[in-house]
């Protein structure tokens, strides 16, 4: 039974989130490995027509099926709804660099927040046809089947991911290096897909910086529903905060709470 938030049953929203993923995936699949033009945004990150059309398709569905909810997306920003409790957070193609270089390691990220708390998350990889769904209080599923993280007693045993070493700078680069050097095998280049691997029990830790809420909020229910832990580098819960909605964040996710606690100790961030 899908849990409820107050008087609202989340089950219709899960169905809607799946429709959003279908619509975004249809767009990105159509453009994948085709010669699309790549523009550069103000923050120097790449964007394509696929990113914009995929987010537009999701926003069109939300305007019809959840018209009172707010929407915050990577490409078209934040639009408040008449019901301030609910906001959808969208990243149509997380991993645009993977997308434009033909690697099927990007994903569509869809989160629904209730009073800032991510209560529903979807990670969809349309090329590999893999879809993770996490719902507050329920087991995470991958293509409809429950999944779980694996035990990992220490960072020294961990397979660690970060999208790129270039996402760290200054003090957070030094902090990341402590976790990287302590881990068994550090790897790079999976974007959101790495979190799916941790939830599936194939990897152990993801440590990242310079992320916006649309990069990580959908992943919180997915990790937690699979038995993992995901916080910021201070160990605080990840939420959608209107005051920091455009700021960069540091996050750490682990499949085992013991490894998560050790990673926080190694990060020793701003204490």
TrEMBL record:
Record GO biological process: L-histidine biosynthetic process
Residue positions binding Mg(2+) 1: 74, 91, 94, 215
Record keywords, A-Z: Amino-acid biosynthesis, Histidine biosynthesis, Hydrolase, Magnesium, Metal-binding
Required cofactor(s): Mg(2+)
Catalysed conversion reaction: L-histidinol phosphate + H2O = L-histidinol + phosphate
EC number: 3.1.3.15
InterPro entries assigned: His_9_proposed, Inositol_monoP_metal-BS, Inositol_monoP_superfamily, Inositol_monophosphatase-like
Residue numbers binding Mg(2+) 2: 93
Pathway participation: Amino-acid biosynthesis; L-histidine biosynthesis; L-histidine from 5-phospho-alpha-D-ribose 1-diphosphate: step 8/9
Superkingdom of origin organism: Eukaryota
Record bears the keyword Magnesium: yes
GO molecular function: histidinol-phosphatase activity; metal ion binding
Xref: Pfam families: Inositol_P
UniProt family annotation: Belongs to the inositol monophosphatase superfamily.
Protein name, per record: histidinol-phosphatase
Organism: Auxenochlorella protothecoides
């Amino acid at each position: 039974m899908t849990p409820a938030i107050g008087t609202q049953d989340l089950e219709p929203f899960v169905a809607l989130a799946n429709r959003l993923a279908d619509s975004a995936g249809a767009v990105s699949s159509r453009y994948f490995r085709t010669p699309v033009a790549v523009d550069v945004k103000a923050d120097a990150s790449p964007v394509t027509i696929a990113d914009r059309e995929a987010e537009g398709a999701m926003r069109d569905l939300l305007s019809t099926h959840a018209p009172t909810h707010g929407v915050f997306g990577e490409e078209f920003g934040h639009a408040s709804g008449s019901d301030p409790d609910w906001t959808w957070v969208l990243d149509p193609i997380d991993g645009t660099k993977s997308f434009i270089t033909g690697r099927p390691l990007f994903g569509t990220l869809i989160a629904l927040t209730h009073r800032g708390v991510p209560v529903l998350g979807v990670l969809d990889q349309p090329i590999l046809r893999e879809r993770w769904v996490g719902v507050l209080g329920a087991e995470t599923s991958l293509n409809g089947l429950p999944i779980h993280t694996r035990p990992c007693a220490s960072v020294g045993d961990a397979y660690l991911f970060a999208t790129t070493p270039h996402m760290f700078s200054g003090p957070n680069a030094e902090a990341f290096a402590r976790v990287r050097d302590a881990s068994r095998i550090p790897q790079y280049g999976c974007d959101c897909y790495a979190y799916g691997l941790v939830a599936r029990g194939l990897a152990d830790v993801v440590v990242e910086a310079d992320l916006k809420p649309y990069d990580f909020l959908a992943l919180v229910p997915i990790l937690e529903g699979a038995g993992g832990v995901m916080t910021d580098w201070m160990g605080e819960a990840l939420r959608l905060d209107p005051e920091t909605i455009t700021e960069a964040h540091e996050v750490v996710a682990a499949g085992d709470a013991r490894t998560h606690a050790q990673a926080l100790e190694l990060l020793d961030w701003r204490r």
